[in-house]
Known about the structure:
Two copies of one chain form a homodimer. Chain A contains 25 helices and 20 strands. By secondary structure, chain A is α/β, with parallel strands linked by helices. Chain A folds into three domains: 299 residues, Thiamin diphosphate (ThDP)-binding fold, Pyr/PP domains (Rossmann fold, 3-Layer(aba) Sandwich), CATH 3.40.50; 181 residues, Rossmann fold (3-Layer(aba) Sandwich); 131 residues, Rossmann fold, CATH 3.40.50.920. A six-stranded parallel sheet of chain A has the order 10-9-11-12-14-13, sandwiched between helices. In chain A, strands 1-2-3-7-6 form a five-stranded parallel sheet, with helices on both faces. In chain A, helix 15 links the parallel strand 9 and strand 10. In chain A, helix 5 runs parallel beside helix 7. The longest helix of chain A has 23 residues. Chain A is elongated, with a radius of gyration of 28 Å. The model of chain A has no long low-confidence stretch (mean pLDDT 96). At the A-B interface, helix 6, helix 7, helix 8, helix 15 and helix 17 of A face helix 6, helix 7, helix 8, helix 15 and helix 17 of B.
Amino acid sequence: MNTDELSINSVRFLAVDTVQKANSGHPGTPMGAAPMAYVLWDRFLKHNPADPAWPDRDRFILSPGHASALLYSLLYHTGYDLPMDELKRFRQWDSKTPGHPERGLTPGVEMTTGPLGQGFAHGVGMALAERWLADHYNRPDHEIVDHHTYGIVSDGDLQEGVSSEAASLAGTLRLGKLIYLYDDNDISIEGNTDIAFAENVAQRFHAYGWHVVGPIDGMDPESVDSAIKMAKAESGRPSLIICRTIIGFGSPNKAGTASAHGEPLGEEEVLLTKQKLGWPHVEPFTVPQEALDHLREARVRGKKQQDGWQARLDAYGKAFPDEAAMLEEAWSGELPQGWDEGLDDLFRPGDKPIATRDASGAVMNALVDRVHAFTGGSADLAPSTKTLLKDHGHYGFEEFCGHNIHFGVREHAMGAIANGMSLHGGTIPYTATFLIFSDYMRPPMRLAALMGLRVVYIFTHDSIGLGEDGPTHQPIEQLLGMRGVPNLVVLRPADATENVEAWKVAMERTNGPTVMVLSRQALPVLDRDELAPASGVQKGGYVLWEHSPNPEVILMGTGSELHIAFEAGKTLSESGVSARVVSLPSWELFDAQPREYRDSVLPPDVRARISIEAATPVGWERYVGLDGVVVGIPHFGASAPASVLYEKFGLTAQHLVDEARRLVAAKSGV
Amino acid sequence: MNTDELSINSVRFLAVDTVQKANSGHPGTPMGAAPMAYVLWDRFLKHNPADPAWPDRDRFILSPGHASALLYSLLYHTGYDLPMDELKRFRQWDSKTPGHPERGLTPGVEMTTGPLGQGFAHGVGMALAERWLADHYNRPDHEIVDHHTYGIVSDGDLQEGVSSEAASLAGTLRLGKLIYLYDDNDISIEGNTDIAFAENVAQRFHAYGWHVVGPIDGMDPESVDSAIKMAKAESGRPSLIICRTIIGFGSPNKAGTASAHGEPLGEEEVLLTKQKLGWPHVEPFTVPQEALDHLREARVRGKKQQDGWQARLDAYGKAFPDEAAMLEEAWSGELPQGWDEGLDDLFRPGDKPIATRDASGAVMNALVDRVHAFTGGSADLAPSTKTLLKDHGHYGFEEFCGHNIHFGVREHAMGAIANGMSLHGGTIPYTATFLIFSDYMRPPMRLAALMGLRVVYIFTHDSIGLGEDGPTHQPIEQLLGMRGVPNLVVLRPADATENVEAWKVAMERTNGPTVMVLSRQALPVLDRDELAPASGVQKGGYVLWEHSPNPEVILMGTGSELHIAFEAGKTLSESGVSARVVSLPSWELFDAQPREYRDSVLPPDVRARISIEAATPVGWERYVGLDGVVVGIPHFGASAPASVLYEKFGLTAQHLVDEARRLVAAKSGV
């Protein structure tokens, strides 16, 4: 067994033993993909196991996250801070080796994978960020941003639509430094891929504008080596290397079958496999020193590479001090000094009514002038979402230095690509589409929340307020669905002034994604000289206005409906019912406040509470309780002018006034 | 102007006038796509405007639903029950001409479209259903199921991932009677499609195994005619006809630009366009009698076609009375007599614990023996979701008579295809995947709810109870997200006996989709000799058990957590706190009960309430109120054995007992 064979088997069997010890997991892919992974990591991947955060490292994504044991085995072999004991605690509580790779938990894991297709699409975002930063910061003879994004992708990844979307965009943008090894093993859980996946993958990727290499023998190191060289040589197109492999390779009874996929081989079969592949180390978790020595050269190589890069960066810093400082700041994720200057003056009392989508566009355009890392785009709706960063150019394959990304009608990939850009670092990405289409991008939004990524998802046309387009375009349940996602902050500002504050929250939030929910229709600018300051948005909810400090009834709402609540509150108070109006733009921020503050906004003994939101009523009982009234839309919308819909669906100040009077009367026993 | 030209312009300008009158809508696509639509509807489409429900009609889908004015114009011209007055009330309250086509509202509208990609993917389901019914029911010389599925699809549709998924499956299954005309107009909202969509569509569809015709001149009727003939002649592959068109054709100032897409031309531009195309009818809504006479021949042709088919059906009924009766029943959507026989005996007290996914599989296999129309499949997870219909074969291109569909790893298309099958009629479709992947299929689930389709979405691995796969696979917010969708019934049965009842609900629900949420882990079979009958599931919630009729505390839960609540309830009652345990498998069904019933289950004056569900706590305040305790998981899960997670996250009977004691003590002021 030569060093390559020895190392491949060492990587392979450490993964097999890891799964077997846990008695849970997926051995098949690690066994078949070990050769390609080994060649990539040993001969090509530019990384420094001692510094997994080195900005100019190559990125590696294991898109079929269920094959996590392969990644842990690679990390161990190449000398990341992942002790063998952690591999022995695979899939156990509080280990660094969870069932699917989790970013932040395990050094060297670039992203959390598991839901198929996401790794593929996030990788496109990483490659996009690299390209963008390189275009902006590199100078002749100063290639300080210069790395590849590699990934292993599976049959399942390529069947998911999100991969198709991302691949098409990657082809359009000619992302030449994106290289995926496709583990083409013909097997999926229900059997041979023929039953559901008869397409010609090579031809499909050709059609997307990719450089396709192979099919090659993915089990042969030299074939993989040549293929990756060809891929690296192609700088104008992303590359897909089709690697024919055998799932569960080496297992006498399971190789090439679906049963190798999702369950441990069994102790006996592990032994038979080791025997078949001539692996003498029957004792689990045995790693030959020769393999370890060989693979841990990655540390020496990595240090040398990083040192060389640091020297180049220093030279760059001398030649281009301003750019270097900006790049440093972008990498750090910190906002430049004075980033929010002037935002508070954008909107003043007396301004004419303005849709929050328009107000948001104004804020964004103010931001990008100061925060260069701020970049993003829309799924073919920029004129409607008002998210264009004016005079800031767009992404393209020829002139590449703009800030605006044309994602095409691809909401799902848009979410994943923005996440990938955030993962890469150096950018603060945003996306934009209509709120209804948030349904198309829930999987990446969830992953961003799970990974704690800084991304801003902008959703406009946020209710029946969009009017004539009708129920297919009118969100009802989308807000609620997003409010249930842990670590996702949802903001629905009520006017331009809350909009400014919402953007401050979003920009300063570094440990998770933020959702911005905006109106299509114009809304009055609340008069902050008369009302509470908009900075209350930072706390998620605040008392906007009240008739007296001891309210009989509390009216609460978000976004466009806050104005209805406000009107009702004034009417009630004028007629002798003391009302308080609470703006609740973000449940998550409000819930995170100390109980004392929350109780000051919503006094526990005031049970006459009414909420209003042009969305499903489900969930508002959280603040309204069993004794109040939730005014919402418990059905789908309809096609008609917005004003008609608000009237027909009872989202009116008069309705709130009636309900409030009823509640107060019931309480006083009238 | 010959009759074709006259008719095309008549269709075109009625659409233009419709949009202009509403002063809202999308004129560009109707103007460019009028020729292809005209040729298809006038020369090929087999339909009877007098009977839009005729089962053997060809199906037509307008996937870019924003071009609805084109469809309404076609329906008017060919003589459907859609008066001109309705076109004049385009996009107004209570009209039959909403902004996007809505099934059920407008005769002749086969499906609700608007969210891009959905029409494309639903059409694949229609073609699949046709193929399945034809395979099952046709006999030599008795082709009683024999129609095509046609569609117009747009650039945006082809960019959406769901189309890619559906196209790949349609190619694999060789759906030769599926024919799409691709309106290739190079324009999307943000500009020329080059900026985001540079792929080679023809090559991509070749790769999927499609028959690609063109690009042709989509504005030339004879080119469209030849292309459709070629597509019809190809019976072994689905066809994509690439029609080059000009968006906003005829408009001197807007043709070929994005500004023709989403807003009315303006009155002046309408006049200029009519002038340019030599259309003398400046008065809006003028339809020349010649065009009307010509296009309304569809009624004569349609009647003749339907009569011919009826005669063939009668002959079939004589030759194959049993099959004819079955087919009739399938079309009617009614369940056969005795469809639920024996279901109640599937599970008995004393049975060993069984996962609800396994129990569900048993029910499904009992069902399919009696309900032939019951068919579906999984997104490559059948062995895990336990949804295989044993000994019932699978869909394939050679042997096509099975019941099991291999959807591949394509959750999004799976949802859309199942919807399309339901729309087609003759089938009761189901889908299956893990609950976490419901995130991938939210858009079609919403459409099914909006259209009122009978589909069953099965989701297993419904909580942290799946254990080691970790947070990427553990649902937290998915249940809440689905509970917010109007007209979607979500059921999370607690054991095998509730499972049976849940399936009864799902099978009998004809006006909307049902979600079945099932455990991976085994759960005890509740002893119905001792407890309330499982039929309480039909009401969404019921008192499972109580210590006395005057409970001090109510414990409520769903699914696997109901057993924890039950254990806590018994413990409490033994220690002197009278507890009631409520099973709440479906919020929607429970909320639909009369107040009297709901109050009998959850007496308004009992405020010591605790809910438990292994999911986000958000939303449970609906039943718990401000004074109770919601036990849930307000964060993401983790990778570890299920039992460890339940303990670590506090989902234990002891926790409930402690909270209950605290609530009761607080109330009594102790």
